[in-house]
Amino acid sequence: MHALPGISLILLCQLAGETFVQLLEIPIPGPVVGMLLMLAGLVWHGAVPQSLRLVADTLLRYLALLFVPAGVGLMVHFELIGRDWLAISLALLISTALAIAVTLLLLNLLLKRNTSRGGERDGG
Questions:
Q1: Are residues 29 and 75 in the same domain?
Q2: Residue 119 — pLDDT band, cuts 50, 70, 90?
Q3: Which of 5, 17, 82, 83 could form a disulfide bond with 33, CB atoms 3.0-4.6 angstroms apart?
Q4: What's the start-to-end Cα distance of the chain, in Å?
Q5: Are residues 39 and 1 in the same domain?
Q6: Residues 51 and 102 in one domain
Q7: pLDDT one-digit tens code per residue, 47-96
């Protein structure tokens, strides 16, 4: 199986997302819109094509390498980060706490919904 159709699909979705963002002038990154377009296409298709699966598995295998530029950025801007460490730490702590709280609330809601649907099926 060749990876060319899979990587082409990823790049076309990113291009479509970038184009969409530029045309509508919305404040969302183009790759995020591209990922949403790909998700919609995959849901519509009902399955992940083998060529896309091949590319995705390869990218995930080397995901750790994508953190190297972020680490280099931290080292390059070490002084700036050192100067604003309190604000950065507070932002990280608050955003992490909010993400955990939203996840817990959503999980609780979905579990309650699933339990009530299960109870209706068992009782009927």
A1: no
A2: low
A3: 17
A4: 48
A5: yes
A6: no
A7: 899 999 999 999 999 988 888 888 888 889 889 889 999 999 999 999 99
The CB-based long-range contact list for 60-69 (8 Å cut-off, 24+ gap) reads: none
Is residue 96 packed enough to be buried (19+ CB in 10 Å), middle (13-18) or exposed (0-12)? exposed
DSSP 8-state symbol, 61: H
46 and 72 within one domain: no
Q: Tell me the per-residue pLDDT of 21-51, one tens digit each, with 9 for 90 and over.
A: 999 999 989 999 999 999 999 999 988 999 9
Same domain assignment for residues 49 and 85 = no
Last residue of a domain, one of 18, 34, 61: 61
For the chain, the domain total comes to 2
- Candidates 42, 35, 79, 76; CA nearest to 59 is 35
- Nearest Cα to Cα of residue 12 among 47, 46, 55: 55
Domain that holds residue 86: 67-124
* pLDDT, tens digit, 9 for 90 and up, residues 99-118: 999 999 999 999 998 888 77
